[in-house]
Amino acid sequence: MFIISERINGQFISVGKAIDNRDSKFIQELALKQVDSGAQALDVNVGPGRDNGPEDMTWLVSTVQEVTEVPLCIDAFGPKTMEAGVKACNNPIIMNSTNADPARMEKYFPICREYNADIICLCMDEKGIPNSADARAEMAMLMMATAMEYEIMPDRLFLDPLVMPVCAAQDQCAKVIQAVSMFQSLNEPAPRTVVGLSNVSNGAKNRSLINTTYLAMLMGAGLSSAIMDPEDKELMDALKAGEILLNRSLYCDDFLRA
């Protein structure tokens, strides 16, 4: 399981303040803490509604990569902020993200190709998130085919079926699991998959329990990566146990520490 930390995000009040104040010490300590907790990549997001989004993203990316060489997942909706982050990045790059809207793919796939990035592909289009696993798979196939037109091969994509909050769209939780399973047959080898895990518990109580249970279910369906909180010990323990049970990691009695 490839773990992408969700914590370097301007929507968290402390991170937003650190970006505003150019508090590099806070950001760098946070980045190192995430990596020490098990993150293999860091999602980097300045947050929405910023007047100086490109400038803020350039500073944030530069600050983080001064202390770590792990891949950075440049998380921005606007193309200018996205490209600013990608340009500033010397670490391996994941773009977060495009979707199946033709206008968005037309903007983001060229950036992906130019900077040799991987890219997260959200299974939605200009009409929104589809209701079924089948429709999600159709959008995934469309994005894979369009990416190849830009000389971006399937092994550079992460397919995201889009997790919905259980308290608002309970029926979608099972459909996302079904979509992850369906994605396994879209290419050989199977394409990589990713979810924003904490979305499932947004607005709910017992968030860690919901996240942990859902991660285990998704792993069983073939999920290969997640944007999540590596500081949640119960979540990370479940992930490690799942890796053993799915024969992805070699068993040892001390597997939680290994």
Structural write-up:
This protein is an alpha/beta fold and about 260 residues long. The chain has a single domain (about 1-245), classed as TIM Barrel. The chain is about 45% helix and about 15% strand. An eight-stranded parallel β-barrel has the order 1-2-3-4-5-6-7-8, surrounded by five helices. Strand 6 (about 155-160), helix 7 and strand 7 (about 190-195) form a beta-alpha-beta unit. It starts with a strand and ends in a 13-residue tail after the last helix. The model has no long low-confidence stretch (mean pLDDT about 95). It comes from Methanomassiliicoccus intestinalis (strain Issoire-Mx1).
Helix-strand pattern: EHHEHEHEHEHEHEHEH
Radius of gyration: 18 Å
Relative helix content: 40-55%
Q: Identify the CATH architecture.
A: Alpha-Beta Barrel
Main sheet strand line-up: 1-2-3-4-5-6-7-8
Count of structural domains:
1
Overall strand count: 8
CATH topology: TIM Barrel
Q: Mean pLDDT, nearest integer?
A: 97
**What shape does the CA trace take?**
globular
Termini distance? 15 Å
| Class computed from helices, strands and strand pairing | alpha/beta
Supply the number of helical segments.
9
Largest sheet: 8 strands, parallel, barrel
Q: Ranges with pLDDT <50 over ≥5 residues? A: none
Reading off the top of the CATH hierarchy, the class is best stated as Alpha Beta
**CATH homologous superfamily placement:** Dihydropteroate synthase-like
GO cellular component, one term: cytosol
InterPro entries: Dihydropteroate_synth-like_sf (IPR011005), Met_Synthase/Corrinoid (IPR050554), Pterin-binding_dom (IPR000489)
GO molecular function: methionine synthase activity
Domain Pterin-binding: 1-246
